[in-house]
Amino acid sequence: MVLDFSKYSSVKIGGRVEVALLRACGSYEVQMVGLGNNLLVSPHARNLAILDRCFDYIEDMGSFVEVGARTSAQKLFGYFRDHNLGGLEFLSALPGSMGGLLKMNAGMKAHQMSDVVLQANINGTWVDTEALGLAYRTSAFEGVVFGVRLQKKRGFREGILQECKQMRAYHPKKPSFGSCFKNPPGDFAGRLLEAAGLKGFSLGRVGFSSAHANFLINIGGAHFEEALDLIALAKEQVFESFGILLQEEVCILT
Question: Average pLDDT, stretch 59-66?
Fold first, then answer.
């Protein structure tokens, strides 16, 4: 199948690229695109893949909840809320699919996926959370995620939901990845970018939002190379100003 990433991805940057559809669990050497969030895809990218809709499911297994890797963050959030389960309240403010959420250990503030993950199906084999190497916005495992098993923590936390909704209110509305860079230890990427003069700064058809400096936005019709150039420029200016090398939170597929 062919996906047009100028329409499919959250940042609306890219071109028409051939993508394989995975219909069964197994070991594949591919680059997963999920629902296209927090993803910058080169028009020349190869070996891309996406999961079939059979991996979009949520099942109560008694002592845990099993979720297919194609299941969206919003669908999963709704299930946890409707069944009075806690631990994923932050998903109300996040896009993406279960596979991508696990791969980057997605979260907001002190809340993240690793808080509730028990096991994951990687390349067709269920492994315990210790083998995943989940840390701040990253993981150590290689391979394709097909499913995840989550703890059932009774008690949906309305206070955390409202806190995350307030944070979301300051996010820009133009197409973006979400956060472009990870927060360095003891600091915030947005603060560093703003202090380096990059809040509201644009380069060609991409820029850093005037609402939130850590959001790289597509001003209109942006190209892959423009986004790469702005990311490189931001890392250089922050390093020159503060001696801190920012790490991308966005996943770049070339």
Answer: 98
Q: According to the model, what pLDDT value does residue 166 have?
A: 83
Alpha-carbon span 148 to 155, nearest angstrom: 21
User: What is the phi/psi pair of residue 73, to 5°?
Assistant: -60, -40
Active site residues: 137, 179, 249
Cα distance between residue 161 and residue 89, in whole Å: 5
Report helix, strand or coil for 114.
helix
Residues contacting 143, CB < 8 A, separation 6+: 27, 28, 122, 123
Give the pair of three-digit tokens for residue 44. Answer: 């020349």
Q: Which residues contact 243 (CB under 8 A, 6 or more apart)?
A: none
Fill in the amino acid letter for 164.
C
What pTM, to 2 d.p., does this model score? 0.93
Question: String of b and e for 103-128 (b: at least 16 CB within 10 Å)?
Answer: bbbbbbeebbbbbbbbbbbbbeeeee
- Of the candidates 119, 92, 122, the one whose C-alpha atom is nearest the C-alpha of residue 106 is 92
